[in-house]
Amino acid sequence: MSRETIHNEPFEVYPRMVVDAMLAADAFGRQRWAVLEGEARLPAVAD
To answer: Is residue 47 a part of any domain in this protein?
Structure first.
């Protein structure tokens, strides 16, 4: 049994899914950093 967590998912995980998740996390982190630095604002939330 492998110790990698990718083998413990309740569904099949493909390399493209991992890349997409990494890109999404990077985009989120960059946006968050821009907000913290005052270079961007969070989008408005609808009521």
So the answer is: no
Consecutive 10-residue averages of pLDDT for the chain (47 residues): 69 92 95 91 81
Task: Show the tokens assigned to 45.
Answer: 């939330």
Question: Is the CB of residue 32 less than 8 Å from the CB of residue 43?
Answer: no
Separation CA 15–CA 12 (nearest Å): 10
- Inside any domain, residue 20: yes
* CA angle, residues 17, 26, 12, in degrees to nearest 5: 15
Answer yes or no: is 21 within a domain. yes
Task: Please give the Cα distance from 2 to 43 (Å, whole number).
Answer: 41
Q: How many domains does the chain have?
A: 1
pTM listed for this prediction: 0.64
